[in-house]
Write a structure and sequence with these properties.
This protein has ten helices and nine strands. It has 229 residues and is of the alpha/beta class. Strand 4, helix 8 and strand 5 form a beta-alpha-beta unit. Helix 5 packs across helix 6.
Length: 229
């Protein structure tokens, strides 16, 4: 009985996100996360030793001549902390929908006397304020899984627009699902197909996500799109 109720709730959630509410539910949940999980922003800030973060950092910093990096959905910026260790002179920008996480990230970098890192309260599909081709790399990690189909193309198109060279997505990927598969309250997409809609000449490769457990084992992939100049 409990399983049937859970399935019904997920079906209702999928219908609402896909057809009526779009990202409203997920955005509200993440905007308010610091209220119902009071330690979250500090826990995020200190989570630099997680294996998937190290894996992502290694891939990003192994690319050549990287002078600017944006993270979409940075939380309190643990990934950008690790990237800063490898790229001490790069311009770093993080955006997140949770204003307390952005405040925590900003304060951390200021305490490090790092004036080349900026943080903004924005959602993944609202990058319009950033100029075209502003960053060498734009990336996300476990963020687009919360973006419903009505918003996903705007998010991907925005990331492609502001990137000069690469976008990197550490997300759930499944070939043949350009319009989204809803699984366990998360969205799974065919990112290769979506990227190709806007950047048909992009060179795209995939690597293991670095995450372990749950549906990450089935769908977790790190999608790397090298953009044509």
């Amino acid at each position: 009985m409990i399983t049937k109720i859970k399935i019904l709730i997920r079906n209702i959630q999928e219908f609402l996100e896909r057809n009526i509410l779009g990202g409203f539910i997920q955005e509200l949940t993440w905007k308010c996360k610091h209220f119902y999980d009071k330690k979250w922003t500090e826990t995020s800030l200190k989570s630099i030793n997680l294996e998937h973060r190290k894996n992502l950092t290694q891939i990003i910093t192994s690319l050549h001549n990287i002078d600017s990096v944006m993270e979409v959905g940075c939380a309190s910026a643990p990934n950008l902390q690790l990237i800063r260790e490898k790229l001490p002179n790069a311009k770093l920008v993080g955006i997140d929908i949770n204003k307390q996480a952005i405040k925590t990230a900003r304060n951390h970098f200021l305490l490090q006397n790092d004036n080349n890192a900026e943080f903004f309260t924005k959602s993944a599909d609202r990058l319009d304020d950033f100029p075209e081709k502003s960053f060498d790399i734009v990336f996300s990690q476990a963020v687009l899984v919360f973006v419903p189909p009505i918003n996903i193309r705007k998010a991907i198109h925005g990331m492609l627009r502001v990137s000069k060279r690469y976008i990197i997505l550490n997300e759930y990927h499944l070939d043949g699902e350009p319009n989204g598969l809803f699984n366990g309250g998360r969205w799974i997409y065919d990112y290769i197909s979506i990227i190709k809609e806007y950047s048909p000449d992009a060179e795209i490769s995939m690597q293991p996500s670095g995450f372990k457990g749950g549906i990450w084992d089935d769908y977790g992939n790190l999608v790397i799109a090298k953009l044509k100049k």
